[in-house]
Design brief:
Layout: E1 2-7, E2 10-17, E3 20-30, E4 35-43, H1 52-66, E5 71-74
Parallel strand pairs: 4-5
Antiparallel strand pairs: 1-2, 2-3, 3-4
Amino acid sequence: MTFIFAIEDTNVWVAIAADSTVGFVAVKLDSESRMGEIYMVAVDPDFQGNGIGTAQKWWRLNGLTDKSNSRYRRFT
């Protein structure tokens, strides 16, 4: 996963395979409540069904807990 940009409280990472962007995950962080929210997970339709979305989700959940956030939420 490659960090691509941050806007205010949202950070975005992209998944790249075969020199193409195949998905992204966006995370919102609230420093006051220490809440991290997986805001969006998207996978290119041509690459769906290969575990990319699941890998992005778990990769960021691990990253949220590494950042000392005590809580997180995920919307689907």
